[in-house]
């Protein structure tokens, strides 16, 4: 059963993959002392509550629906510590990454488990970060049973983007296909899929596109579907930047930086384009985000030899999407 609960935590974390940048995607499941599920939550965005605090707050609300809680992470942490009334005594948690033991933008999660009287914490992956590590040791010193390595390989897969952008550049290729595998057409995926892509655009360091896409589609390349910040751009093209039609909407975004070479400081890059762009850069990519609609069209299919292994797959309305790595 340990693997079952950890898989629930992993699946929840994958829903917010990339959106937690520069933090890792993390999931947490809380069980009461009778092993009934109280919460399945994840870290959703940097600056917001970590997965553990998010799950505990959700479980708290479920057990005490009459209580209203603050939303800001530090205030929420303090409120739960002062008002828990031992409702989590002997509870169990499953966390995809070792709970942090330091105060960052949000409070230490290891301390929260200790304060609330949890009896067991199951962890997928040990945190090797010098600042955040040590949560497991802290919990053991408080008399809490800690077990590492539950679905460890799957936990490490979840952390792949985080480990890449921590040490250098992480490159993600986003592609939208019709059900028959065509990338052609002005709008291929549904609004839920496009909104998820816009959420990623709103937090990346750089969106990388080709000149052909700009000339043909005349796009805006912003994050309007999530009311987010439009990303800075890098346009990779044989044509000089000044020779593009600057009436194309992407050039009208205020305060947008547009590069013709990828700056070294950019850590999270998303590449967007069609078949030719994919063909040019497929060997440089760390992961691929591929949306597939449930609509068949009469356009030419993508025909690139590329062997992909899915790390995660899910639905967004009638679309499916997957996060893949190259084999």
From TrEMBL:
SUPFAM superfamilies: Cytidine deaminase-like (SSF53927), Dihydrofolate reductase-like (SSF53597). InterPro entries: CMP_dCMP_dom, Cytidine_deaminase-like, DHFR-like_dom_sf, Eubact_RibD. Signal peptide: none annotated. Residues 1-147 form the CMP/dCMP-type deaminase domain. It comes from the Bacteria. Pfam families: dCMP_cyt_deam_1. Pathway: Cofactor biosynthesis; riboflavin biosynthesis. NCBIfam families: eubact_ribD. This is Bifunctional diaminohydroxyphosphoribosylaminopyrimidine deaminase/5-amino-6-(5-phosphoribosylamino)uracil reductase RibD. It comes from Campylobacter taeniopygiae.
């Amino acid at each position: 059963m340990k693997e079952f609960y950890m898989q629930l935590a992993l699946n929840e974390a994958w829903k917010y993959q990339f959106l937690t940048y520069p933090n890792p995607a993390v999931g947490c499941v809380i069980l009461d002392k009778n092993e009934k599920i109280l919460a399945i939550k994840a870290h959703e965005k940097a600056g917001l509550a970590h997965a553990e605090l998010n799950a505990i707050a959700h479980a708290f609300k479920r057990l005490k629906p009459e209580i209203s809680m603050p939303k800001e992470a530090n205030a929420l942490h303090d409120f739960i510590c002062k008002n828990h009334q031992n409702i989590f005594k002997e509870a169990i948690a499953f966390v995809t990454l070792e709970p942090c033991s330091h105060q960052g933008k949000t409070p230490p999660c290891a301390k929260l488990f200790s304060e609330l009287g949890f009896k067991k914490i199951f962890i997928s992956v040990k945190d090797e970060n010098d600042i955040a590590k040590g949560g497991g040791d802290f919990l053991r010193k408080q008399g809490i049973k800690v077990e590492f390595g539950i679905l460890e390989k799957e936990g490490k897969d979840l952390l792949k983007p985080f480990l890449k952008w921590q040490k250098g550049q992480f490159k993600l290729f986003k592609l939208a296909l019709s059900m028959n595998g065509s990338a052609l057409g002005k709008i291929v995926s549904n609004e839920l899929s496009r909104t998820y892509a816009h959420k990623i655009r709103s937090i990346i360091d750089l969106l990388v596109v080709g000149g052909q896409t700009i000339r043909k589609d005349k796009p805006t390349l912003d994050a309007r579907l999530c009311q987010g910040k439009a990303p800075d751009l890098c346009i990779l093209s044989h044509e000089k930047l000044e020779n593009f039609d600057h009436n194309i909407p992407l050039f009208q975004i205020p305060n947008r930086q547009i590069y013709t070479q990828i700056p070294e400081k950019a850590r999270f890059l998303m590449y967007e384009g069609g078949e030719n762009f994919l063909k040019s850069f497929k060997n440089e990519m760390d992961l691929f985000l591929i949306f597939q609609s449930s609509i068949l069209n009469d356009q030419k299919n993508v025909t690139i030899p590329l062997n992909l292994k899915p790390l995660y797959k899910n639905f967004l309305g009638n679309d499916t999407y997957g996060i893949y790595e190259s084999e």
